Amino acid sequence: MTVAQNVAFGLEMRQLARAERETRVARMLELVHLDALATRYPRELSGGQRQRVAVARALVIEPPVLLLDEPLSNLDAQLREAMQFELRRIQRKLGTTTIMVTHDQAEALSISDRVVVMRDGRVQQIDAPHRLYEHPRNDFISSFVGKTNLLRGRVRGHAVELDGGLMLPLAAPAGAEGSEVTLCLRPEKLAFADGAEGRLAARITERFFLGSQWLYRVSTDIGELEVSCANDGRPPRPEQALVQLTWSDDVARVLPLDGSAS
Fold this sequence. Notes:
This protein has 7 helices and 14 strands. The protein is an alpha+beta fold. The strands form 4 sheets. A 5-stranded antiparallel beta sheet has the order 7-6-5-8-14. Strands 9-13-10-11-12 form a 5-stranded antiparallel beta sheet, with no helix packed on it. A two-stranded parallel ribbon has the order 1-2. Helix 1 crosses helix 2 and helix 1 (3-13) runs parallel beside helix 3. The protein is elongated.
């Protein structure tokens, strides 16, 4: 079947009049930017175009809820990113409630209004994407959704005492005095500092170029940490260089061992 016949299939099964079928198919193909390819066959389309045909075929029957199970898993990285925003644009325009299953954290964060993180069949947290990332409820979420540095310690007033005795001040009380906690520091919240501005001495052990950013692994007195820096065109820090790290008190997230977060 052609692209248009594929999209019209569900309407034919519902025995809609031909004129209405053609109107709705034309409108849907225009929405997914395939109106110029209506007479093409799937074998003549790219992977992203075939995915859009599948979305149009599902949406044209105007379902109350659209279920998508790993809809972008077979696409290459660049096309997958483009289709993420395409799906979001279509969903916002139509207002159809959409539930999408994905193992791609970036995909979930970029196109969702709310994210449900599950582990072993149990819901771990339901939240807006930004809040889920910035305020994870437990260790699993903080490490599963994006990269993170996890440090064990005990609450000491407005600070956490890490293994080894180093005290890290916090912007707010971290919990009951002496309670065991995990401190979460996202790599992009850490920065290299000059001289006295630093809070922690480190040595760069590895660096990785990721295009828009540099990812460094550094060795410190509190263990190995990851530091992410934007690629602003300046030369990267060399491996084995001695550096100072700094961060704001309000970016550290304290995760009590009972699974709640502060």
